[in-house]
Amino acid sequence: MYAIIATGGKQYKVAEGDIVRVEKLGAEAGSAFTFDQVLAVSDEKGVLTIGQPTVAGASVEATVVGDGKAKKVIVYKYKRKSGYHKKNGHRQQYTEVKIEKIQA
Questions:
Q1: What span, in angstroms and rounded, lies between the C-alpha atoms of 52 and 88?
Q2: Which member of 25, 71, 85, 97 has the greatest number of CB atoms within 10 A?
Q3: The whole model's pTM is what?
Q4: Using CA atoms, how far apart are residues 52 and 74, in angstroms rounded to an integer?
Q5: Cα 95 to chain center, whole Å?
Q6: Beta strands 38-42 and 2-7: pairing type?
Q7: With 0-12 CB in 10 A as exposed, 13-18 as middle and 19+ as buried, what is 79?
Q8: Contact call for residues 12 and 5 (beta carbons, < 8 A)
């Protein structure tokens, strides 16, 4: 059984027991979190239910494991012959969640 959820402008395929890194949620570590934007759900028999745009009555319950920062991404801008260059770095914040239950 798996589900496709939308959070933080991205879509994630999750199953029960998975640990997923999503965009920062602002929830405390150890607290419960419910994703209500479920785009698709597959049951035990393999039947896929696709929502228009979300599946009515479906939700995914998760527990927040913790927060963190991803690896640094270097952004380097350069224009030849003009002496222009600019170096910038960015570390995206994320929240790690453990998927507990998928309700269809």
A1: 40
A2: 97
A3: 0.83
A4: 39
A5: 8
A6: antiparallel
A7: exposed
A8: yes
Cα–Cα distance, 90 to 59 (Å, whole number) = 32
Tracing tokens 């939308």 back to the chain, one arrives at 6
Q: What is the 3-state secondary structure (H, E, C) of the chain?
A: CEEEEEECCEEEEEECCCEEEEECCCCCCCCEEEECCEEEEECCCCCEEECCCCCCCCEEEEEEEEEEECCCEEEEEEECCCCEEEEEEECCEEEEEEEEEEEC
**pLDDT tens string 31-80:** 999 999 999 999 888 899 999 999 999 999 999 999 999 999 999 999 99
Percent with pLDDT over 70 in the chain:
100
Q: What size, in residues, is the chain? A: 104
Instruction: Give strand pairing partners of 66.
Output: 96
Query: What is d(CA 63, CA 97) in angstroms, rounded to the nearest whole number?
Result: 6
CA distance 42 to 73: 35
